[in-house]
Specification:
By secondary structure, the protein is of the alpha+beta class. Strands 1, 2, 3, 4, 10, 11, 12 and 13 form an eight-stranded mixed sheet that branches. A five-stranded mixed sheet has the order 7-6-8-5-9, with helices on both faces. A hairpin with a 2-residue loop joins strand 11 and strand 12.
């Protein structure tokens, strides 16, 4: 069977990227519970950048560690790889949940999403209101619907009683009203301290025990999660939630004039030739974390490809001696 060259390239890159996220996760795991989130993040950045620059591709960072004057490596706009075809846009989070690593808490990942030029939304780094579900309810949700209505619709789509529905939400003061309404609707609340990339993807995996993600979180995480959610048949709806004039200015500079626009997974991550790769650093709703056993390190990763709609869970053993 003849295969499109871009299909072959994206397939090869997806497996190359998992080696990158594995390396970053192992480097970050050295800092679990040591109280230094900056050192943990820098270790992940160093490992990720080094491995990316060994891959035969031309990658432009469209979502990275910050602007060039804020981040010396993996900054937005940096070009990585060996400078060869294919040309890709990449969105990265070398270490999502730096606080979780510093304090030894639940849920931390290293993440890469990639696609052709202009496939990933160049989102200003600010808050978005989000609602994410799995395939069964993908076409049924409304970000402006009352929380009780959303829970009822998702419960019906999943064939569950409302009391069996679990909603994942960041443990933040701003979410107190959400939490009260979720419980009043009869559903369960699962709180996480950080990391809504994993939280947004989790409803697409039956074994995760998560049915809905909702709340307000970072825009960059919405784009990263969308690449996986779209390929897995789920849906994420997101709308910018600017807090002040600085946020309003950032939206204007990004060419986003309609602040009320609701972005779907397809708006955040366009087309089918997308890949999503993540490796767990600490156990979370999506992946188990790094396990060190003598001279062997075990990693757990997820690789999702848009073209083939495949998802691979990869457990790898890395011998250090």
């Amino acid at each position: 069977m003849h295969k499109n060259m871009s299909d072959i390239n994206s397939g090869n890159l997806a497996l190359d990227f998992v080696r990158v996220t594995e390396a970053a996760a192992i480097a970050a795991s050295e800092w679990i519970g040591r109280g230094d989130k900056i050192a943990a993040d820098q270790a992940a950045v160093n490992a990720m950048r080094s491995r990316l620059n060994k891959i035969d591709f031309l990658g432009k960072v469209v979502i990275g560690e910050g602007e060039k004057d804020e981040a010396p490596m993996l900054y937005t706009g940096e070009v990585v790889g060996r400078g060869k075809a294919p040309q890709m846009d990449i969105a990265i989070d070398p270490l999502e949940c730096t606080d979780s690593i510093a304090h030894g808490r639940y849920n931390a990942l290293t993440v890469i999403a990639a696609g052709p030029k202009d496939s990933l939304l160049h989102a200003p780094d600010m808050y978005m209101t989000k609602l994410a579900v799995g395939p069964a309810a993908a076409n049924l949700i409304d970000i402006d619907a009352p929380i009780a209505t959303t829970i009822r619709i998702v419960a019906k789509a999943l064939g569950k009683d409302k009391r069996e529905v679990t909603v994942l939400i960041l443990d933040r003061e701003r979410h107190q009203k959400y939490i009260e309404q979720i419980r009043a609707a009869g559903a369960r609340v699962r709180l996480i301290t950080d990391g809504d990339i994993a939280g947004a993807i989790a409803p697409n995996l039956e074994e995760s025990g998560i049915d809905i993600l909702m709340g307000i979180g970072a825009s960059t995480e919405a784009v990263l999660a969308a690449a996986a959610i779209k390929a897995m048949g789920g849906q994420i709806l997101a709308r910018f939630a600017p807090r002040d004039e600085r946020d309003q200015k950032a939206l204007h500079q990004a060419g986003i004039s309609n602040v009320k626009k609701i972005f779907t997974a397809n708006d955040l991550a366009k087309g089918e030739d997308l890949t999503f790769t993540a490796t767990g650093v600490i156990d979370g709703p999506l992946l188990n974390g790094v396990v060190v056993n003598g001279n062997m390190v075990v990693t757990h990763s997820l690789v999702v490809r848009g073209i083939t709609k495949t998802r691979r869970f990869i457990t790898a053993e890395h011998y250090t001696k």
